Amino acid sequence: MNSKLNHAVAICDPLELAHPDSFLDVQVPYPKALPQDVIVRVEAVSINPADMRARLRKKKDNRINVLGWDVAGTIVEKGNEVSDHFQVGDAVYYAGDINRSGGNCSYHAIDSRLVAFQPKTISVEDAAALPLVSLTAWEALFEKLALAINTNLTIQDDEPTPSLLILGGGGGVGSMAIQLAKLVPNLTVIATTSRKETTEWCLKLGADHVVDHSQALAPQLSKIGYPEVDYILICNSPDTYFDILPSITRPFGKICSIVPFLQSHDFNLLMRKSLSFHWEFMFTRSSFSTHDMVKQSEILNRISELIDQKKIISPRVISLSPMNASNIRKAHQLIASNKTIGKIVIVNK
Amino acid sequence: MNSKLNHAVAICDPLELAHPDSFLDVQVPYPKALPQDVIVRVEAVSINPADMRARLRKKKDNRINVLGWDVAGTIVEKGNEVSDHFQVGDAVYYAGDINRSGGNCSYHAIDSRLVAFQPKTISVEDAAALPLVSLTAWEALFEKLALAINTNLTIQDDEPTPSLLILGGGGGVGSMAIQLAKLVPNLTVIATTSRKETTEWCLKLGADHVVDHSQALAPQLSKIGYPEVDYILICNSPDTYFDILPSITRPFGKICSIVPFLQSHDFNLLMRKSLSFHWEFMFTRSSFSTHDMVKQSEILNRISELIDQKKIISPRVISLSPMNASNIRKAHQLIASNKTIGKIVIVNK
C-alpha cells in the first residue's frame, strides 16, 4: 500500500498567483492512518477563500505544503479506532483540519470524527462543494446566532417577525446560509449582492429580499421595511460594515462574522443596544480537538439528508478537471477576482 | 397634589467630587404621571457606577440634573394605563430609565413596566440595593451567556463541567452574579478580587474559588484546575484582561462585559476559538422601549421570590441617611475609591 504513488498539488515558495510555479505537481508519500483516521481516495475537492488565506501565509522555507479542505471521495483504509459505521468503499465527504496536510492529492488521511456520508442523489463534484461552507453556515446560524431549524421562533403579537441580514450572499457560505436560514420558520432572509447575476442566484436560493452592498445599506433596508434586523451574518469584509452595525441592528441583536477584520474598531459602539458579536471559524473544533468535534460529522450527515430531500442544493457553479497545478491555480485566480458565484470544484478524473 | 414640595439632590456644573457644591439640595416640581407611569414616594435609593459615569458626562449647561436609578418606595399615584396589579400603597422597587430624571428625590415618576414588588422579608434599604445590579447580573448570565437557572447544563461524560469566571466579584454586580450563578446546577463559579475583605465576601456569597486579579490570572486558574473557562463576566476594566481572554477561554466560550473599553482592541484574537463577545447594558430595554421591557419587571419579581426563599441576599453593605447632597456626595466618593464591597444605599428618612 505504502509504495503507491500519491500525486499532489503543492505550494512551495510564496510566488504571485500569476507565476506558473505558484502551484506545483508533485509526488508525496502515501499517507499513514492514525488510529482515528480514514484514508480517502480523493475524487473531487473544492477551493475556498480559506485556501487563499493559507497560501498567503506560506513561509519562504523551501518546504512544500498541500492545501485543500473540502474533499469528496471513497474510504480505502481505516485506522484501528475508527467507528464501525465507516467501511472501506463508503462514499464520504468532509472539510477536514487546517492543521493537517490538505486534500489536493490522490490519497488523503483525515480524522474520521470529521467525516460524513455523501448525499446519495448528487454527483461527487456537487458533494465536494458542500462541506466547508455548509459547516460554516450551520455553525454560524444554529450555534452562534442560535436560530432553530426545527422549531418556530416564538413570536408575540406585539413583536415584529425576526429577520436575518446576510452580508455577501453570493459566495459559498452566503449561498448555503440563505438556504439553511430559509428552513427556519417565520424568519425573513435578506441577502446583499452587487451584481445582477448574484442577485438572481440569491433569489433562486430563496432570499426574501436582496439589497446592494455597493450602495448605502440603511436606506435600502428601510425601504423594504427592515430598518433594523435581529441577526447579521457577515460573509465579506466586516470592516466595511462595522460603523453602521449599531444603527441597522435591533436592541439585543446578534452579529456573526466569518471573516477577520483588517483593522481595529471601537466595540463600545455595540454596547448601547446590548449587541453580541460572534466569531465563526469552521476549523475551531478540529484545531482544538474539542470533545464535540464529532458534531461536524453529524452536521454533514444532516446536510446530506437535506440534499437528498431536495430541501437545499449544492452551491457548485464551476468544475475544472483534472486535478493538477494548472487548474488549482485557475481556481485560486477566480476566487481572488472576488466575482465568483457559489463554489468552484476540481474533479480528480 | 402638584403643589407638594419635591426635594431632590441634583448636579449642575460639572465640579470635582471634592467640591461641596458638586451635589446640591434643590426643590423640583412634583412629577406628572404619563399614562404608563406610577408615582413613587422614594424611601431608599442606591448609588451605582452608572451614576458616576452619568455625572462625568454632565454638560456645562447650567441646568440641574437628578441622578439615581435604584429606587425602593411606595406607589402614591397611577397613570391611566397602568395595569391593575399595581395599586396605590404597594411597596415597589426598580432600576428605572437612564433617559428620565433619576430617583434621588422624594417623589419619582417611572414607567410601571419596569417596576416590581419589593421582597417581603427584607428592609426597604436592603431592597433598594437590588434592582440595577440584579437586572444586570440576570440579563448577563441568563440572556447573554445563556446559562439556565432551572435546568441542569447538559454534560456528557467526556466533557469537563462548565465554569464561569467573574472578573471583579466584590462589587454590586459581581455580588449578585456570584449568587445567581450558584443557582445553576453543576456550574463552577470563580470570582476575582484583590483584597482579603472582598475575598471573604465572595466566598460568603458562594463562589467556589477566588483568585487575585492584581496578579497574573492564567497561572492561578491553572493551579485551581481551570486553565480555560467556558464563560467570563467582566465587571471591571475590560481593557486589563482583553489580551489574555483568548488563552483562558475554552473554544466556543462566551464573554460578556458590563463595562465599556477605554481603548480599541484587536477582536481577531477571539476568532481562532470562535469566541463570542456580548455587551450587557441594563438600560437597553428602557432606552429603546423594546417590546419586551416588561421583562425587567418580571426579573425583579423573580429576584423578590429568591430573596424571600432565602436563596440569595441583598448586597447592601453601607447605609447613609438622610438623603441629602452631603450623603450622596459621600456615596459617590466611596464608589470612586474603587474599594467598596457590595452596595451603598441612601435612606430617605
TrEMBL record, chains A, B:
Taxonomy, superkingdom: Bacteria
Oxidoreductase recorded as keyword: yes
InterPro entries: ADH-like_N, ADH_Zn_typ-1, ER, GroES-like_sf, Lipid_raft_assoc_Zn_ADH, NAD(P)-bd_dom_sf
Molecular functions per Gene Ontology: oxidoreductase activity; zinc ion binding
Lyase recorded as keyword: no
Keywords associated with the record: Metal-binding, Oxidoreductase, Zinc
Ranges of residues in domain Enoyl reductase (ER): 18-346
Segments passing through the bilayer: none
Family: Belongs to the zinc-containing alcohol dehydrogenase family. Quinone oxidoreductase subfamily.
NCBIfam families in the record: adh_fam_1
Protein name (Swiss-Prot/TrEMBL): Zinc-type alcohol dehydrogenase-like protein
UniProt organism field: Acinetobacter brisouii CIP 110357
